[in-house]
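Tokens for chain A. Residues wanted.
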């Protein structure tokens, strides 16, 4: 994975969590927040995970807990922009790593900027944040479309947050914002799909009359097999009104050493997925993956306004038990291939 202009640096001496220390090996010397502990922290409260080693040029400098997940859809260029916001909790610094992928799960070269700095190009952005420090990364569009970014590039973002203790990681809450301003009045905020909070069946409630009220749907494959997801729509009486299936969505990519990369993602207007007419008034959307896990995003457009709808775990049709949440061991396999180095500070 390509990391743009981020050095792998070693600490001169052991540091306590939360300290900012001088790091030798660069000219001039670099300073940065320490988002690791010199001894391995207890991370078992984070779905039973184990600490990972953070490395510098001369080897391991410490150990971090981590949390990870996917923003299942990005839209940058062609009138759209995507921003990713996060802040380090008050308790300690965090290390942040964002990786960009196209709709099939392949590396995606994007131009991005942070805090008004010059744009950088790459398929990965990482940095360290001091305690309480916020950050916004703005995605401008595909590098190949610069400098005007006249066409819209879509895909997904995989995020990993490293912390010196489990409590700090448990309090990291990133969000992604879409904006079509000034050409269109829409601005939307969506949460991350944590690796430990995905499932096989999702539902949401929307309204789509084909006019002022429209619903769009994003389905991201969070499993190791390609599949098509069934979409059922139930009317206001609970009766099945119409159904459809997505195209086959690529699985998490198999990488060297038993690790997994990003999966494929699919987005469409709901009316383009189902075969029949959508019912009038509020309706329920059920995304059924069978035994295959997914993450789902549902957007509601009402004329000049738009919002992300609440999508929650649900049950498969005719079953009384809720669908199972994701296997934690697959998250560890996904994070295994990510860079775990000393990240630079923001510009």
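Reply:
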């Amino acid at each position: 994975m390509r990391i743009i202009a981020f050095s792998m640096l070693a600490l001169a001496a052991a540091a306590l969590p939360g300290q900012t220390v001088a790091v030798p090996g660069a000219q001039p010397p670099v300073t940065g927040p320490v988002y690791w502990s010199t001894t391995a922290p207890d991370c078992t409260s984070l779905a039973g995970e184990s600490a990972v080693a953070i490395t510098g040029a001369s080897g391991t400098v410490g150990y971090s807990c981590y949390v990870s997940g996917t923003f299942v859809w990005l839209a940058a260029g062609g009138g759209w922009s995507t921003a990713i916001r996060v802040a380090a909790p008050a308790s300690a610094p965090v290390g942040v790593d964002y990786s960009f992928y196209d709709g099939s799960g392949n590396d995606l070269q994007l131009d991005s900027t942070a805090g008004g700095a010059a744009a950088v190009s790459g398929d990965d952005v990482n940095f360290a944040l001091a305690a309480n420090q916020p950050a916004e990364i703005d995605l401008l569009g595909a590098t190949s479309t610069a400098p005007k970014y006249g066409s819209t590039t879509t895909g997904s973002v995989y995020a990993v947050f490293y912390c010196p203790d489990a409590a700090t990681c448990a309090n990291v809450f990133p969000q992604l914002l879409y904006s079509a301003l000034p050409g269109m009045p829409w601005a939307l905020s969506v949460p991350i799909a944590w690796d430990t909070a995905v499932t096989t069946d999702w539902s949401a409630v929307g309204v789509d009359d084909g006019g002022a009220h429209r619903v769009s749907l994003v389905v991201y494959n969070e499993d190791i097999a390609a599949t098509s997801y069934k979409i059922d729509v139930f009317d206001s009486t609970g009766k099945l009104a119409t159904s459809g299936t997505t195209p086959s969505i690529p699985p998490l990519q198999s990488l060297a050493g038993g690790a997994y990369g990003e999966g494929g993602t699919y987005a469409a207007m709901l009316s383009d997925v189902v075969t029949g007419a959508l019912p009038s008034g509020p309706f329920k959307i059920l995304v059924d993956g069978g035994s295959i896990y997914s993450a789902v995003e549902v957007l509601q457009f009402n004329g000049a306004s738009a919002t992300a709808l609440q999508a929650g775990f649900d049950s498969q049709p005719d079953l009384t038990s809720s669908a199972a949440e994701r296997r934690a061991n697959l998250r560890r396999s996904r994070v295994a291939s990510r860079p775990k180095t000393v990240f630079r500070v923001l510009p």
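The chain has two domains: 20-192, 198-325. The longest helix spans residues 328-335.
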